Amino acid sequence: MNCNELESLDLSYNQIKELPHDIFQFTSQLKAINLAGNQLSELDVNIFNNLSSLQVLDLSKNNFRKLSTEIFKNLNQLLHLSISGNPLMEFDVEKILRYTTNLKEINIAETFLPCQRLEKILNVLKNANVSIQFTNMSQQIESNEGNAMSKSNNYDFINVNDSICLNDEQFEYQKLLMAPIEEQTLKLLKDFRTFNRNQERIINRLLELENNFKFLEQGLLKIMTEMREEMNQLKISIENSEKSKSTNNENK
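Given the sequence above, the corresponding structure tokens read:
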């Protein structure tokens, strides 16, 4: 693509699965790129190297599970970044901010980041004075008081809860759902084996308890038998003693 004067490029919703590493080699004047709504899952780390004038980058609604921070290394003029609607599991915001020193706004709506990680990201962005969006760029949301807020929502108004982040259990489940089928199968087999091992341990423990009860029962039966024998011996001894006394009395 040789468009030296091109300043804005919209490739959104074209079912693009991958981009050539040199696609932007001759578009050095680009200030805005829209790649939203495609099927991209990764980008070459050098794909934006020639775009030092880029100010707006929309990567929303793709299939990125993680974004290499190296794609941002020459984007120091970037002002607006959207990564919303991606199944992100990793996002190194600290390193991205070191590259995009002029970033003013970021959209991280509908990502699958774990809650603790998301909270850390929000704090980092707040300290860097970067506005945060949890809605689409064309939308506005209502504050808790019912007043319309601008599309660049400040962190102070954001309520961090399970509707925009995942707890640990949800995060692990989501990772499994998005993993390749081979990985999912291996995980299920591992869980099944673990379940079987646990079940086997439970059964062995129950058998052990059953044996202990049998041993206890046998011990109790033995004690009861011995007590009966002692009682019988005592009874015989008492009877003999009484007979002996009776005989002595008769002799007198």
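The beta strands are 8-10, 32-34, 56-58, 80-82, 105-107, 131-133, 141-142, 148-149. Try to locate this feature in the token string yourself.
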